[in-house]
Backbone:
């Protein structure tokens, strides 16, 4: 993660602070200074620093429970909108996801409880929730903020912890993919409501709503793709009929092939049948504009396209495709010769076919991909 400062390592997890967080602190200082002078400014900064220490503890709630299930978290980053713990994988076993997800908000509840005990107050929640009340002491404000964090994170919408808790509970009955769809729909419904509320009140809510809506769709899409990929091998999904270009071809030759076929990605294959690179339609058009029709394809193709063996699991291939942000993968036989192509498009088609004729899925505790935990603004 560029632009972040490593401030320490706890239990094997690097703690990073994004530089925008420091800008955020300066902004807080200035905003409070304008209101109440230097003392108010430092108090404001102290509150935000304490609050984000609680956010960090929340993240470590997730991280430490995940660790118990054998899932590592290489790093956690603090942003002005919250913390993001980067988990190696998110377990598909509902009980594990449930405990990892709920651990974060529980940490905030625990902090609030400890603070309230310390303050010796019988804790009038109404008073605690009035965060802007300057009469309320710093610690009481912190307790209130922790309760708010717990509640906000338990909203049943991805990518909030509540969305994961909901999915885990639904997965007990409906299976992972269906549960994700249901939880995503609940989250999107909530996002729409949040957005409408925001239109009448706080514009920040609209931003959060859009974020939640998109995150929920993304989560649903990934879960579906994984469900399709499970139990299949690359050879089941690859395209076997496609045109290739020789290394000595020019952009003009590629254009001619583009017009003649429905293909949009052209592999460049050498005499030994090995994949040298891929020329996409977009790269072709760009090359035509910048270099002209005589430019050799070897100089304008993408040489970083990975190849996977035909017998590899489709799940691994999907991961390679999505993680590297490629639209196409080469498929090679044991001798390394190109025998197929795997594209995002044909995976999509396979997804539709499978959805039309569902197969019994194999359930298990396999990883469902890695990803950030808690990408929610708070
Ligand atoms: Zn969380």
Residues:
């Amino acid at each position: 993660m560029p632009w972040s400062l490593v401030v320490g390592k706890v239990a094997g997890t690097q703690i990073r602070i994004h530089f925008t967080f420091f800008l955020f602190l300066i902004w807080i200082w200035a905003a409070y200074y304008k209101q109440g002078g230097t003392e108010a400014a430092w108090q404001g900064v102290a509150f935000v620093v304490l609050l984000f220490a609680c956010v960090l503890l929340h993240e470590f709630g997730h991280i430490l429970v995940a660790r118990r299930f054998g899932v590592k978290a290489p790093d956690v980053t603090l942003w002005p909108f919250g913390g993001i713990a980067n988990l190696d994988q998110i377990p598909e076993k509902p009980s594990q996801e449930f405990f990892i997800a709920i651990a974060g908000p529980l940490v905030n509840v625990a902090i609030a409880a400890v603070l309230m005990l310390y303050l010796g107050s019988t804790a009038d929640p109404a008073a605690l929730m009035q965060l802007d009340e300057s009469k309320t002491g710093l610690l009481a404000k912190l307790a209130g903020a922790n309760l708010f964090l717990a509640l906000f994170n338990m909203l049943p919408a991805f990518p909030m912890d509540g969305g994961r808790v909901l999915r885990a509970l639904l997965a007990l009955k409906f299976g992972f993919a269906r549960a994700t769809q249901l939880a995503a729909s609940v989250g999107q419904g909530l996002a729409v409501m949040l957005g409408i509320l925001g239109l009448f009140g706080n514009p920040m809510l609209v931003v959060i709503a859009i974020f939640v809506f998109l995150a929920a769709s993304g989560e649903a899409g990934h879960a579906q793709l994984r469900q399709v990929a499970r139990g299949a091998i690359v050879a089941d999904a690859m395209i076997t009929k496609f045109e290739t270009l020789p290394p000595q071809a020019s952009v003009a030759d590629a254009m001619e092939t583009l017009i003649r076929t429905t293909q949009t990605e052209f592999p460049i294959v050498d005499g030994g049948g090995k994949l040298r690179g891929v020329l996409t339609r977009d790269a072709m058009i760009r090359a035509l504009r910048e270099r002209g029709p005589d430019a050799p394809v070897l100089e304008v193709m993408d040489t970083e396209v990975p190849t996977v063996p035909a017998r590899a699991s489709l799940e691994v291939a999907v991961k390679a495709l999505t993680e590297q942000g490629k639209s196409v993968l080469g498929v090679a036989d044991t001798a390394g010769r190109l025998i197929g192509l795997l594209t995002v498009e044909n995976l999509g088609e396979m997804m539709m076919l499978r959805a039309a004729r569902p197969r019994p899925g194999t359930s298990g505790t396999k990883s469902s991909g890695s990803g950030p935990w808690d990408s929610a603004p708070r």
Q: What stands out?
A: The chain has 13 helices and ten strands. Residues 58, 62, 104, 153, 161, 374 surround zinc ion (CB under 6 Å). The beta strands are 4-10, 13-18, 75-79, 82-87, 265-269, 275-280, 307-309, 328-332, 338-343, 371-373.
